[in-house]
Specification:
This protein has five helices and no strands. The chain is an all-alpha fold. α2 runs antiparallel to α5.
């Protein structure tokens, strides 16, 4: 598959800039709250975005992950603040990682997007570059949850 690498990196940066715009406006006092009807907090969703993107970029390749190993137990699929047996990273740490991640990934993977994965993924992706669109739709999905949680918390603090 031939694609423009610059376009993919620009899309990754654009989605992340919007996520940062939304998260930078959060009331830090509420990022740990889990409103009724939700399983996770804003902090969990941000940690999950960071972990998921890192995991997919490093999925089925021989390179090491860029996030701490304990993020899997905190922010992996099926986890929630209710399952935590250790303190999560601070909001400040997560925001720093969220801000730095696109450049870290680009610095590490630029020029490697057509590099094959060790085997095809369950979604039929076979190169590093093919995982980028998957991480983008996943980030938008969780950004929707972040915005929904924020709205619920705003309504409940008014009432």
């Amino acid at each position: 598959m031939k694609f423009s690498e610059d376009v993919l990196w620009n899309q990754l940066q654009d989605v992340r800039q919007f996520t940062l715009y939304v998260c930078d406006s959060m009331d830090e006092a509420q990022v740990h709250d889990v409103p009724k009807g939700f399983n996770n907090s804003i902090l969990w969703n941000v940690g999950h975005i960071i972990l998921d993107q890192d995991m997919w970029f490093h999925y089925l390749i021989a390179d090491d992950s860029e996030v701490p190993a304990d993020y899997v137990k905190l922010f992996g699929y099926g986890t929630s603040p209710a399952t935590w047996d250790a303190a999560p990273p601070s909001w400040t740490e997560l925001m720093e990682r969220l801000r730095a991640q696109p450049d870290q990934l680009k610095n590490k993977f630029a020029g490697r997007l057509e590099e094959p994965l060790l085997r095809e993924s369950e979604l039929g992706m076979s190169t590093i570059g093919e995982v980028i669109p998957r991480t983008l739709y996943h980030e938008w999905y969780h950004l929707g949850y972040i915005q929904s949680i924020r709205r619920c918390l705003s309504v409940s603090s008014v009432g």
